[in-house]
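I am writing to request your help with a piece of structural work I have in hand. The matter concerns a single protein, recorded as an amino acid sequence and a row of backbone structure tokens. Could you please explain, in whatever detail you think fit, how the structure tokens follow from the sequence? Thank you for your consideration; the sequence and its tokens are set out here:
>
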Amino acid sequence: MLFQGRLDRAVKFQEEKNRHLHESEYDGKKLYDPEIADEMEKGDMLALILSGCLTILPVCALVLFVIVAAGMLFFHIW
């Protein structure tokens, strides 16, 4: 292969890294996993809700309009 030496070094490095992780002291508890609330600021949740509504609601309204218009054309209710 063209880059066999680099591939071998990368595999060896990854094996050493994994071995180091398995040999480190581990007390059986789950490592710290930050929750979403730890990384958010004060107004982030409101901003997420508003942006979701502004993104999803117009698309839903358009789909609903298309369905109603197709039904009206199908049943000749003009």
Observations:
- The mean pLDDT is 83.
- DSSP finds three helices and no strands in the chain.
